[in-house]
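During the reporting period the student researcher (J.K.) took over the structure-prediction task from the postdoctoral fellow and processed the backlog of single-chain submissions. One of the processed entries is reproduced below for the supervisory committee.
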Amino acid sequence: MNEERFAKAFAGGKFRMKKWGRLKIKNELEHLGLTKNCIQRGLKEIELTDYSKTLKELLKKKWGEVKEENPFKKRDKVARFAISKGYEAEMVWEYLRDY
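J.K. obtained the following structure tokens:
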């Protein structure tokens, strides 16, 4: 299979099915030995609007699941979860300011 096609399918699939962020997808593709060019093309499969919408939904869902009384600790736990899923920290903290 073509490397570029694989990168596109992998990036799109992991984003849609497992809700992975770009950083985690990029790291996995690098681990698999794909070229930087193929990785960049694969990541272009993820639309920014879909990406931000998915992140917001993920944060909202996790916010409801975390049973923590202290709002600062709760925000930290939710942020660590999203960052571990491969989302950019700046983006995560920007959306968590609303909570």
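The committee noted the following: DSSP finds six helices and no strands in the chain.
J.K. will present the remaining backlog at the next meeting.
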